[in-house]
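Trying the structure run again after the queue cleared.
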Amino acid sequence: MSTAGRLLEDMRRAARGVSQEWLQKKNVQFLTVGQKRLAGMRMPVPAVIAYVSRKESVAAADLIPEELPFAAGGGPHMKTDVVALVGTPRAFGLEAGNVIIASDQSYGVCTLTFVKNGVGYALTNAHVGCDIAGGGSFCGLSLVEPVTNRVMPVGPVIWSSGLAPGQVARSDAAVARADSFPVDPYQIFGVQQPLAGTSHIVPGNTTYWFMWNGVEFNCAYPETIAHPAAIDVEGMPIEYDNFWVLHMTKGASAPGQSGALLCRTDAGNSVIGCGIVFGGSAPNLLFAFSFDEVFNQIYAALP
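Done. Tokens:
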């Protein structure tokens, strides 16, 4: 083992040795071995770091010592540091804005995750969660992890608004039951604050935005469709009605964005879900249904 490797292992051993005691101190959440910070800047100084829920004045018994001996019997000492956490430590679940893939290899975006009667659900488009070319059969949905691109099963689609040639679609939504993966209800991937409520798209100059895999896209100037319009879905023309056409103002519309939750930011930085994206005319136009009516219908239909 290299000198650096031995140093790291010695530090880990010392940190483990005090972990039971330090985790009893006020606000301490966990310990790591890394680099000491000075005025927010990392220094080339190894340190045992105590991550705390918040920094505040504490009693002497709860203070983290400035140094820690490598061995219980004394000897050389190493530096310590205290770092405040921004958020609560937790396992990440499926969120709105995450990329998902169906068992028929259709890609899209998770519109929203929520819980009803103790069961987690994930919402997306019907043409993402169902095999439309295969007669509309329900698929299984999986999360494509943002960093690793690993495909993690979520669960089966259990409800769909339905899409079929010869029928006019006034909605495009499907819901999967999250049997195999946890959900973070009403959270949007890449956005700190949770969804505060739902509404609908309105004409005017309001700027709307959506997240795709942590990237923000903006659109505005919504126009309501005046008649049923043929939209290509998996190679089949399906007539859609009662939807909105929006103009991209930041980023381009593109395949793979289907299912994204169209939001606006209200006074007080509240996030309001206003639309469910289902298509567009790349790169400048986006198609979406107003969200509140769609979600209310879905929620009422679930057990």
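The mean pLDDT is 93. Worth checking whether this holds up in the mutant runs.
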